[in-house]
Design brief:
Nitrogen fixation protein, NifX-assoc_nitrogen_fix, Putative cytoplasmic protein, 3 strands
């Protein structure tokens, strides 16, 4: 049985660490990385079962936070500076995700319909994280003095 190479990427490994860190009751013990990250995969069928309008539950909010925490960890690995994630949401699932490095806002994403947060596949999730990460690293490179504060 060959293992999908996506499970060997830094991002997916970090996502699994973040999700396991949220597991205060040890429910994920013995689970595969694929099973732990399965809630992030929002297939068309799953999306069809989620109402268009709704409030996110605590588990969904935790998954959003874990996603941005993982990106912050990868920023730290890349630039050796502390990256601090902040996810602020209304009870209706609207808000922002910020990652600051020093005094620099390296990531600023508007969040909408968080109750439907997910990706078509783990590969799509990694692609989105890679885009966010590359923009953040580029921004830090453009303003190293601000990022170092």
């Amino acid at each position: 049985m060959s293992v999908d190479p996506i499970f060997e990427t830094d991002f997916v490994k970090e996502m699994a660490r973040q999700m396991r860190a949220l597991d205060t009751y040890g429910s994920y013990a013995g689970w595969s990385v694929e099973k732990v990250l399965d809630p992030y995969v929002m297939t068309k069928e799953r999306k069809a079962n989620v109402p268009l309008i709704g409030d996110p539950d605590e588990e969904t909010i935790s998954r959003v936070k874990a996603f941005y925490n993982a990106i912050a960890v990868l920023i730290e690995k890349e630039c050796k500076l502390l990256a601090v994630p902040l996810v602020h949401l209304t009870h209706e699932g609207f808000g922002r995700a910020l990652i600051t490095v020093g005094k620099l806002v390296a990531v600023d994403r508007t969040l909408r319909d968080v109750h439907r947060f997910g990706f078509a596949s783990l590969s799509k999730m990694k692609d989105e994280a890679d885009k966010i990460l590359s923009v953040a690293i580029e921004r830090i490179g453009q303003y190293p003095a601000v990022a170092g504060l």
